[in-house]
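RECORD TYPE: inverse folding
INPUT: structure tokens
STRUCTURE:
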């Protein structure tokens, strides 16, 4: 049998207006007590953590450049959240994802082309910067920037002749999407040929770094042979094997980006000019540790 419910008008009339008013008045002290208690709780020194200092390294994620504090009483939480709500202030990992030596190629290229470096390589497998301009610009890809104020001046440690050469200019660029590039440039002649250099980012950025924080790069014009990452490239010697490798690419126009190392004079074309350039440096060599 279907239940018979009284119409709304019947319910409304069951509580006289006078009683409803008294009920509201009776609740007012409780509402006031609840308001004062909640406000006091929010300002209480007993609140588990009022201020939390964020360490260097996390700061950059918040657009700050050094330590700063977060007033947790101002952190919003939604209805239904636990009072012990978590606030995750763990700094984003800073991972190094790529190292490269970069030069501008003219003519049909008209762009920067990279020789990809291998930060894990040592000895004969250290990648060579083969082009006539030598090592001028090193780029490092990062997934975060930590505290940019702590990066300091990038240096190239000369493992062949001793000493460290500070970069002439550097920048930290935001590529968007959590991708950043640190670029360091040296003026012509500061990093001579036939030398092995080490660039070390250990301890920079003020936060832990994953990936390989240091990279060796060999300055050896003409050491083009091989097909990286296949064994035999490079070998630390500029000789006729390297010259022939260039000759085999004669008249490749424009050069594919991955073959930038064969375009010694960076004119965007591999031809006999590049072949002769390698030939002129025949017999040069340098070893890396
Ligand atoms: Ca390394
Ligand atoms: Ca070689
Ligand atoms: Ca060329």
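DESIGNED SEQUENCE:
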């Amino acid at each position: 049998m279907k239940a018979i419910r009284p119409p709304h008008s019947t319910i409304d009339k069951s509580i006289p207006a006078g009683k409803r008013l008294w009920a509201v008045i009776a609740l007012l002290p409780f509402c006031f007590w609840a308001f004062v208690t909640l406000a006091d709780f929010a300002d209480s020194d007993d609140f588990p953590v009022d201020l939390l200092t964020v360490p260097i390294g996390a700061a950059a994620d918040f657009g700050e450049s050094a330590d700063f504090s977060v007033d947790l009483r101002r952190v919003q939480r939604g209805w239904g959240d636990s009072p012990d709500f978590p606030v995750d202030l763990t700094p984003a990992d800073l991972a190094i994802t790529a190292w490269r030596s970069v030069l501008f190629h003219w003519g049909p290229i008209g762009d920067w082309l990279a020789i990809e470096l291998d930060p894990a390589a040592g000895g004969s497998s250290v990648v060579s910067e083969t082009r006539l301009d030598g090592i001028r610009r090193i780029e490092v890809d990062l997934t975060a920037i930590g505290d940019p104020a702590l990066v300091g001046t990038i240096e190239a440690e000369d493992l062949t002749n001793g000493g460290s050469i500070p970069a002439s200019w550097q920048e930290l660029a935001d590529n968007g999407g959590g991708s950043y590039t640190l670029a360091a440039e040296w003026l012509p002649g500061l990093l001579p040929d036939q030398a092995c250099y080490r660039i070390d980012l250990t301890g920079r950025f003020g936060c832990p770094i994953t990936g390989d924080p240091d990279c060796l790069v060999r300055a050896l014009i003409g050491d083009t042979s091989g097909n990286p990452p296949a064994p035999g490239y490079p070998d630390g010697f500029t000789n006729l094997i390297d010259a022939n490798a260039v000759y085999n690419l004669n008249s490749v126009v424009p050069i594919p980006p991955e073959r930038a190392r064969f375009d010694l004079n960076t004119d965007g074309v591999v031809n006999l000019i590049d072949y002769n350039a390698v030939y002129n440096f025949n017999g040069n060599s340098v070893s890396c540790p």
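NOTES: Residues 263, 265, 267, 269-271, 273-274 surround calcium ion (ligand 3) (CB under 6 Å).
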